[in-house]
């Protein structure tokens, strides 16, 4: 390894210090150990590798899985087509699939629960479930206790209010909603924990593929709310896990 | 009057029928009585004339008021500058002004209550009050029993829920909200009367001058809701009055 | 029932008042009777259950119908695919279908007419008919006398003017239009009843999927007009019914 | 003059043909007479020079006028500030000013009427007048018989219908409207001449500075309509004149 | 006929004048002859009926054609699917079809040339041809001498300049362009006739389905230009014909 | 208190259980104890009351402060004008003001540090500081250890990299950036804690008042990032505090 | 040739100079040699002809190739469908195809390297490769030494930093990125050469088909960056070549 | 210096190699010499420091200048207010100011011409000059031979064509245009050098603050064009200089 070699040369008086200084400044970053950054996250016990499958061919996905398997880590695939999963299943017997959310899971060892509390995933309507489930399975696979309550949109507010005790038990809440997207605002007025708002593209006409819900959430009067991209269930689940493992 | 003249000429054989037919077809509309259309609305007892003051000079507004006074009807002015009102007041002693909503009122005779029930005006926040008051004073001036409950936005849902009995007594509800604009959706889930949603330009950043609230309201999952233009308190008050006078 | 039990325990001195107070405050909402809210609407004689079919699988829709049938209420389905209807028809012999508007109707008992007057549905062009029919069948199914006049757009104004007597007989008007969407403005200048404007996505180029018609309607100079979402025929029909049943 | 010189040199055998050919190909355009293009328009008897004053300093405008005066042509200034006009008036005694439309006119000789028929300028409301007047004075200054009828918007359709005989006498119609901008569509259904639609920025909220009217006009179902930029009264007046002088 | 009957009754003293006045005011418009308005355009010799085929079923189109045939006028269909044409052709032997522009033509008698000059149709690129051809065939079918020059976009300005003499011969120019849409501006600087600019949806990325070309054309610095909707070749052809038949 | 009274009446057999049940269901929410919800947050030791000063008059703000003072809680004002502060300072001697971020602070007792770790606030440029400071002072006032590093935007990436050890010590990071808004993405690739991205309206042209930065942040490829509204420093600081007090 | 003929006629006194002058001014441009402009680019040794295949039929493309072959130049086709290539390959044996970027290449003689330095093509992610490859193969075919480094997005900044020495060797850099599109900004802070930023439509939700990346790049704080259209790999490659051949 | 100290300790056997390795990996970047990156650009002889003055107070700007003066480099300020310059001038006698473009220049030593060829700056209209001048003075101050030709927009194409020989002499062209923004497309068809297109916010209505010109430029059919942000004259000038100093 280059860096070590330089130090040894200095120690052994093979090179002088000025020359060593100059060399150090011009070393590519990876030689200084920065290349380790990228692998940091996966080094934790049980933390999975993640593959965003959309726009990748079956061959590419299988290739990536094969490479990951060498490290023996768990694997989480998002937006994985059913046909792709069928091919994977033939090779990797322990592969599992969640149809609604298109989540692929390959568990090579047990998931260690590293979350400090409970993550709660809510949806406004039943059509928001695919996005919500992406958050749900992501957070579970990252080692969290996750609960989901679906179809508690604000147009029937009692549905949400009657679950207030469950809301109050959560450490982080993921609130998924399309159309008018007002769910996070109401939840934010009821509890005092971080709320991750996920707009969905559910709706038609002036919802503009989720923009209406996105704007609603960004403009929420309630405090403690932040927003991820439209339909980004994975991002919400990942962030919820990141918050929930804070000591 | 032309039309009468033609008929008299026919009666008196001064002109023949073919000639009369031809003339009738080419008469300007007003001579056929269609010009009455425009005055229909004001013909009802106590119904006011309306002046949209924005973009009109003080002189123009005073001129219009003078002309209207001839008919001795009540006069409602919207978006009237304070300075303009001061000039009006000097001439028309009975002129009144609502500062927040910039409403001008000149009552030349008593307002007859023609509404069948109560109109309720709600706001999400205190900054929505100018728009809400425009709806409130418009509906009142058009002869309605109007009640207002302000600052009952969805981020503190109990504020709204604790007034549910008032909501249920209304015949029409005007729900005014800026920022995320979710108020009408929640109200729509609680009661079963027509709800007129008014988005306001209150907010900043990604509220885009009221577009966020507008989209929220158009995409509401609750039924019985329709929307007027951003900040259009007058339109909401007028429509509420139109609904409330239905027999 | 919990709430009753608490009161009986108080009456029988099984628990003291402080303890009862505490319990009451922590009861889930539904136990306090609030769960009734949601069923309110359907409790009226003849009022239908509504299913928004888009984005639901045939199995899900059949499951919901089965559950609803237990209550023996009428059922209205919107945006129902023809193939779905065919499956439903095999099980529910009394199911009916409107192809243009994709409306599903299952009448388990007669529709009671609860509207106070006539609802009129207008369109600007023939391509707006699917959306207009959604409003038409919705309002009819909710117990209203509904009339429709189609293809009376403003580019041939005489078509509209020659029906002015019909316009004047309506208690509520639903005006459906795509492209430039000017129909509601003209109608609003002719009559003095509530007008529900429905923009449609009909058109091409700079109509932006209905945005042009939506903006036209929101900016109407005529009074008494409010707007629902693009292509939201159901919402317009439902709101028309809500207004028309006002006593 | 260069071109002539080359030809003379060829004629006089001072240069050979190949050399002349090469030179001709490399001459700047103006030397070939193309520089005349730009002055074409002004060469007609009475046709004015035009100055778009917005964004130009008083000094610049005065400089341009001075230069133009040399050609002794009439001068039309658009979007000219009142203060600028006051300075111009001191120097050019025959300068005139239209306050509403901010039109500056310097007539150095009589305007010759070159239009073949009458141009009609309409507005939907009174706030559209500044833009309409810009079209009106432009077309007049370009030598046309122009008539204006203002405040005949579609929300009071009888106002327009009662002038139908005037509409039918026009050779070109300029229809100016803000807010919902539906005027050109209705006019287009009544007459069969070219209609130039001018959206204005008049309105508030979801009119987005004139975009609502612009989209309405672009999406008109009526035939024979085309659109210019928001508030572009000059462009409409100029185009109307261009059409009206067609033989 | 009602109107005649009333006049006869007046003449014969069967009814008095007040009663007649009242009746006249309440007659439906068509009885006063206004229903003729709509048929005005087709009454001219050879002027075709027009069917906008998009969004209409084959059955609907065939039905409309059958009805039109009774009047024995020529028929122009726009955006007609090839399959639809094939069905039409089986019934109407004289039906013709232009594949690129999807124009249907049924000539029941000769087209009389009513245009006063030549209409010129230009495109920026070859992909704009379908829209340009829609304008071309529309204008021809409406009785005009039309010429087309395609692929003369501004990125190779000499292609346009070398045809300047042809440009100068036209009475009206239709300039069709996608992508940056600058063609009308350059043409507008070269000639002094009305230019109808047609933005097309040709392009990708930030062309936003034709919005880039639309905005370019609306903001043109050249005078004498107006714009129709994106891809609206028919509208441009129709307007060109309307201008070209001005006497 | 009503609820207690009902229970006592039940106990004393003054009213029967059915009557009591009916009454309970119709009690306003606050009587059932739900009115406490709103005050929950402030009940914690040292947690401040918050006033959003924008759009409120000096009188209104002073009125609110006076009312809050009764509870003796600390007070945080956001977007407070300098002139308003000057008036407040005259009455409340302990009022403090941060000019850049327009933060008003009235400390009536010591702030108790309730955050579990350190919050780090970063900005891309110096112009983002007002927004960042709003986050900084909010989080501090809510009882947190907060550090700020400003002007470490991605166009000079070494500025950020050289502080990596500080980044790694933070428990929550607030990343504030205008223009291209790429800062959170880069930070998200370096550390594994929750990142709250705040787009600012800093920039010009195609930044569209902060939309460019907003979209960048919503589309970040890095995990663990969520976004608040444009310029919403308060929201970011509040959310950071909410996360940081999680046990 | 006309021009020569005129000169000869002048020389031979067949026509007088005034007549010649007049004729010259009215000659079509091409006769003056301007028609050469268009062929300039291809006249260089080895410079290819370019066909944009999208929206052209196989027949059209084959026709164009046949015509180009006459000039014996190399041919580059962009956005060429695989099926089209298969047909071409049958006729032109030396045709080659790059599947990812859909680039067609027909080399009729060797490519001469005319670039002065190295062009470097970078991508943020693997999904950006098709666009990046379009730039890569375009620049190579235009005679450049091109290197590509893919998947070095800013969310894992060390991947980019560790290649800094390669970045510093490039004369021009093409930086291709979708989603948040921050790559060019970071690269712009590291090196001091022209950077051509290419936004891609890769992503979902609020990326709006590449608009998010486009805005990021336009708003970059780094200097030396300019932007081409979304997904316009060809344009970037062509511009890189244009810069790289500067002497 | 830390790094040197570590190496000396290694050399002197004060620390062992493993310990040194660990320390090196955790050193802040600047200690490794990366902090030099930022100053690279200014190290070249005569290259100026740049201050973006917008949004900075006079005090801040004076402070920055004072600090920069220590390095004795030239200083370029952009978007500098006249009032700010007046204060600077009092302290720095050699300060110069360009009023139209708001450029501040402090020349502490001569500008060395490092450009290899000529940079040409063009504008479409006279209102684009402030932006164009920003590019012009920036490029000059960075050591380039720059020429400007203003008001050669495409609506009068001969103005541009007659300068073709000047266009062909440029090594880089900056084309500045507002309104329809078509200038770069036409220039791109005439010459074969890199063209930097600068959209300006000049115009009104549907130019949307420069968006129309921006889209036109992004969608240009001509090759060799790239675009910078709206009104970003500095960016264009800087990029032109970056290209022009390529050897």
UniProtKB/TrEMBL annotation, chains A, B, C, D, E, F, G, H:
It comes from the Bacteria. Residues 117-246 form the PurE domain. InterPro entries: P2CMN_synthase_LarB, PurE_dom. Pfam families: AIRC (PF00731). This is Nickel pincer cofactor biosynthesis protein LarB. It comes from Romboutsia sedimentorum. The gene is larB.
């Amino acid at each position: 390894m280059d860096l070590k070699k330089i130090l040894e040369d200095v120690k052994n008086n093979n090179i002088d210090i000025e020359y060593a200084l100059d060399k150090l400044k011009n070393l590519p970053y990876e030689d200084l150990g920065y290349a380790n950054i990228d692998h940091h996250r996966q080094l934790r016990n049980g933390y999975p590798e993640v593959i965003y499958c959309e726009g990748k061919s079956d061959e590419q996905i299988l290739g990536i899985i094969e490479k990951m398997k060498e490290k023996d880590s768990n694997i989480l695939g998002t937006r994985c087509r059913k046909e792709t999963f069928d091919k994977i299943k033939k090779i990797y017997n322990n592969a599992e699939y969640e149809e609604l959310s298109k989540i692929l899971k390959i568990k090579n060892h047990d998931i260690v629960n590293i979350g400090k509390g409970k993550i709660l995933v809510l949806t406004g309507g039943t059509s928001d479930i695919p996005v919500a489930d992406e958050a749900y399975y992501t957070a579970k696979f990252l080692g969290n206790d996750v609960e989901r309550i679906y179809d508690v949109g604000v147009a029937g507010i009692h549905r949400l209010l009657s679950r207030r005790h469950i809301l109050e038990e959560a450490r982080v809440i993921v609130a998924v909603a399309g159309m008018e997207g007002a769910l996070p605002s109401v939840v934010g007025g009821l509890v005092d924990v971080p709320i991750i708002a996920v707009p969905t593209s559910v709706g038609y006409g002036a919802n503009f593929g989720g923009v209406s819900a996105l704007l609603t959430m960004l403009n929420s009067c309630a405090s403690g709310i932040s927003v991820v991209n439209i339909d980004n269930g994975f991002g919400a689940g990942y962030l919820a896990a990141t918050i929930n493992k804070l000591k």
